[in-house]
Q: What sequence folds into this?
DNA sequence: GCACTCACATACCGTGAGTACGTACCGAGA
DNA sequence: TCTCGGTACGTACTCACGGTATGTGAGTGC
C-alpha cells in the first residue's frame, strides 16, 4: 500500500482554454469519479467508504467535498457517466438502419451488450433506484436509454398506418423497454450467456414478428381487456 | 410521541400449541417486522435507523439482535413477507380461468394492482436489489412473482402446438415479466394511473393478440436475428 | 509584488450499526 | 416448592463512516 507509484501528477485534461489551475482541478475531479466508479461497481454503494475513494484518488475528503456536495452527488456523477456511455453505444448501433424492424433488432443486440457490463448492471440497474431514489432514477433513464427505445418504437409504429398519440407511444416504449431490460438479465444471469442471447433474440424476434403482422395489416387496437 | 398508548401487551399470535413464552417472543418478532415494514416503506432502508424501529416496536436493540442477525436480515424478513403477499394475491386472481388468454389478462390486471402498492414498489422494486444484492433478489422473485408469470406463459404456450424446451419457456417468461413490471411503472409513475392502466392493458392486449395469431396458426419460431 | 481566492488538507463531530455482557423470567425436573 | 438452565430480552459501549469547520499554500489578476 501507500502512495507508491506516483504515476502521473500531470492531468490528462487538455489544458487548452482553461487556466493551469482549472486543468488540475478538473483532473482530480475526474480521478475521483474514476475511482468511485470502480469501487461502486466492485463493492456497491453502501460498502464503499469515502475514505477508500479519496485514498484511491490520492486526495483527501476536503477535495471530494470541494467538488461534490456528498457521497450521493458523487454517485450521481458516476451514474450519469455510465448511463450516458451506454446510451451512446446503443445510439451508435441504431444509425444507418433504414428498415425500422432491422433497427429494432440492432437496438436489441446493442442493449444486450450493454446490459452485460458489470458497471451498468451494478450502478444503473442494481443501485441506481435505491441510491438516487426512483424519481431521479427515472428522470435519468428517460433522457438516455429509454430515449433510444422510444426512438425505436416510434420508428416501428410509423411503419404502420396507425395514429397513436404520444402517451400511447410512451406506453409501448415502456413495455418494450422493460422487456429488453429483463431480457438482458436473462442473458447476463445465465451460465451460458451466448445460448441465452440466442434464445432472447429468438423470442423477441418472434414477438416482433407478431407485432409486425398486426401493424402491416393495419389491425386496429383492441379494447383488449374490456369485459 | 412517547410510548403513550400501551395498546396491547397481549400478543396476537395464537398461543395454541406453543408455550406462553414462545407466544410472547413471536409477538415481538412480529412487531419488529411490522414496524420495520412501515418505516422502510415510508423512508427507505438507509434512512431508517434501528433505533427508530425498536422504539416503534417498544423494545430495545437487544431484542432485535436476538431475533435477527442484523439490519439486513430484518429487511429480508420484511421483503419476504411483502413479496409473498403480493404473489399470493396475483395467484389468487389466476384461479378459475380456463382460457389461457383470459388468464394472462387477469394476471396482468392483478399485477398492475400489486405494483401500485407503496410497500411493493419501495421494498421489492426499489430497495430490494440494492439491499439484498442481485443474486438473493432474483432467487426470491424466482419462486414468487416470477413463478406466476411462468405459469401464465406456460398456459399460453400450451395453447399452441409448439414444442418449447424449458429454457425457451423461461426466456419468454422473463421477457413478459419485464414487460409487466415496466408496465407497472408506467402506471404507478403516471399522474393519472387509471388512464395509464387502460393504455397499458390496451398495449399488452395488442401484443398478446399478435402473439395469439402466431401461436394459433402454428407459425414457427424464426431465426429472428440471423444475418 | 500584493491581495485575493481557489483547491485542496487537517482535525473534528454526530450518528448509527453492531457487540459484550448483565438480568429477569418462564418452564422443566427433583 | 425449590432449584436450575436457558430463553428473551435490556444496558452500555465501541467503532466506522458521512459530514463539517477551519486552516493553508499555491496560482492568478491587478
A:
Amino acid at each position: 500500500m501507500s502512495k507508491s507509484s506516483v504515476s502521473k501528477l500531470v492531468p490528462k485534461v487538455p489544458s487548452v482554454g482553461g487556466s493551469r489551475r482549472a486543468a488540475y482541478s478538473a483532473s482530480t475531479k475526474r480521478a475521483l469519479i474514476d475511482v468511485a466508479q470502480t469501487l461502486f461497481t466492485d463493492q456497491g454503494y453502501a460498502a464503499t467508504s469515502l475514505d477508500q475513494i479519496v485514498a484511491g484518488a490520492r486526495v483527501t475528503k476536503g477535495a471530494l467535498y470541494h467538488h461534490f456536495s456528498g457521497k450521493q452527488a458523487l454517485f450521481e456523477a458516476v451514474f450519469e457517466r455510465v448511463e450516458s456511455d451506454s446510451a451512446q453505444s446503443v445510439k451508435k448501433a441504431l444509425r444507418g438502419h433504414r428498415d425500422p424492424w432491422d433497427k429494432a433488432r440492432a437496438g436489441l443486440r446493442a442493449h444486450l451488450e450493454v446490459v452485460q457490463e458489470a458497471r451498468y448492471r451494478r450502478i444503473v440497474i442494481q443501485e441506481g433506484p435505491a441510491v438516487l431514489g426512483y424519481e431521479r432514477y427515472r428522470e435519468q433513464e428517460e433522457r438516455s436509454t429509454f430515449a433510444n427505445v422510444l426512438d425505436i418504437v416510434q420508428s416501428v409504429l410509423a411503419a404502420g398506418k396507425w395514429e397513436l398519440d404520444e402517451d400511447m407511444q410512451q406506453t409501448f416504449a415502456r413495455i418494450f423497454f422493460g422487456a429488453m431490460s429483463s431480457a438482458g438479465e436473462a442473458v447476463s444471469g445465465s451460465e451460458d450467456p451466448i445460448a441465452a442471447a440466442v434464445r432472447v433474440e429468438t423470442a423477441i424476434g418472434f414477438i416482433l414478428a407478431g407485432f409486425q403482422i398486426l401493424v402491416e395489416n393495419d389491425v386496429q387496437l383492441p379494447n383488449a381487456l374490456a369485459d
Notes: Chain B touches chain A through 57 residues (CB under 8 Å). Residues 21-22, 24-25, 28, 59-63, 65-67 of chain B lie near DNA strand D (CB under 10 Å from a C1'). The mean pLDDT of chain B is 86. Residues 71-216 of chain B form a domain with the Tetracycline Repressor; domain 2 fold (CATH 1.10.357.10).
